[in-house]
Amino acid sequence: MGGILIRQGDGTWLEPLEAGYGLESELQEILASHPELIPGVSSAAKTCREFQSDVGPADIVVVDSTGELTLVECKLASNPQIRREVVGQMFDYASRLWKMDVEEFAAKWQARTSHPFILDEVDGGILLRGALARNLADGSFRIVLAVDVINPALKRMIEYLNAMAGPGTSVIAVEYSRLRQGSVEILMPHVYGQELAEAKSVRNSREVTAWDDGTYRSWLQDHDSENLERFDFFLTTALAAGLTFAGSTSVHPAGSLPILSRRNIRLGTVSFFYFSGQGTSVEINLGRMAKLSDEELPDAEARDLFLQKLRDIPVLLEVAANLKTSSFASRKPNVPLSMFSKDAIQKAVDALGTLTGA
User: Fold this and answer.
1) Under a CB-based contact definition with an 8 Å cutoff, are residues 73 and 93 in contact?
2) What CA–CA distances, in Å, run from 53 to 71, 89, 347?
3) What is the pLDDT of residues 121-172, one digit of tens each?
4) Using CA atoms, how far apart are residues 316 and 337, in angstroms rounded to an integer?
């Protein structure tokens, strides 16, 4: 391995030997255990090996605390797929994640790792659920091909794909050379395509907005003005009922009304998202209630009254039915804000008051 020397105890310098990998799973295990070795990923990221999709398992799926998604495919030079098939394979996995419901993603993650994926974590004001849901919906992924040796043809292919992919998707190759000197092993990453990826990241970061009620209103005024009055009425009614708007940090407008019980236990959120072709939508997510103990839950009478009040609002009839049959785990469907009358908004906030004690 040219360019690397290790000093021995007697003062001499020796070049380490190539150790290589017996199996691709060895490289996979190293990266899953040390995600910070993957470009753009922090040591706090969560990893899932063999994440199942319709076309087979992706080697490693990584979710950072900010909701960023990284897909890693590990290939050795001895694998005949290393040159061309792997590129189609990587994008095939990405296409299966594209538009996947965040709850389905969490369920697949838990099925593979046996650990629940906590969607309601907050990092720097960013709610993981919203950021992850948006990245899944938009197909904003970092795609990494992890190899032991990269050849010029593969390097050129990766650079081309990284340049041609949309602004939300980065395609990077990393050569993880495994060296040995006596009983000491060394892992040497060499990254290809990173400069293009970083340029995209800078462009995207310029578009990120810290959304609060003011910035959200301004955005609606310019892009979804027909819903501005409904949004204002929703927030005014919610504020009178003791609910406050919590914004997020993201490219697309997003925010929520946290729902807390009278004992200050978080039950869920009423979230506002914008979807192209649908406009601003409202999602009632009380999934946290499904995980609370009987002692932490609002009493049965309050829960029944809440569902009854939702059923009395035509636009939320299906939402109420799904909440009931799923024991509050469902968050479907999201409802276009344009379908809400002022009366429906008032009744929805009143229904939430049975859970919050307002």
Assistant:
1) yes
2) 12, 12, 41
3) 655 444 677 788 888 888 888 899 999 888 787 777 777 776 676 667 788 8
4) 11
Q: Which of 191, 146, 150, 155 is nearest to 30 (CA)?
A: 146
In 130-167, which positions are buried (b, 16+ CB within 10 angstroms) versus exposed (e)?
A: bbbbbbbbbbbbbbbbbbbbbeeebeebbbebbeebee
Whether 64 shows a pLDDT value over 60: the answer reads: yes
Assess whether pLDDT exceeds 60 at residue 196.
no
Q: Please name the residue that has the structure tokens 């292919």.
A: 157
- With a cut of 90, say whether residue 237 has pLDDT above it: yes
Position 48 scores a pLDDT of 95
| Helical (H) or strand (E) element with 71 | strand 69-75
Contact 65, 127 (CB under 8 A): no
Kindly state the tokens that stand for 53: 């999709």
Nearest-CA neighbor of 238 among 335, 125, 348, 127? 348
Peptide linkage before 333 cis (omega within 30 of 0): yes
47 in Cβ contact with 70 (< 8 Å): no
- Between helices 342-356 and 300-311, what is the axis angle to 10°? 170
DSSP string, 209-277: EE--HHHHHHHHHHH-GGGHHHHHHHHHHHHHTT---EE-EESS-EEEEEEE-TTS-EEEEEEEEEETT
Cβ neighbors of 326 (< 8 A, separation 6 or more) are 290
**More reliable by pLDDT, 336 or 117:** 336
Between CA 282 and CA 116 the distance in angstroms is 26
Query: Whole-angstrom distance between the N-terminal and C-terminal Cα of the chain?
Result: 69
Q: What is the mean pLDDT of the chain?
A: 85
Over residues 223-243, mean pLDDT: 94
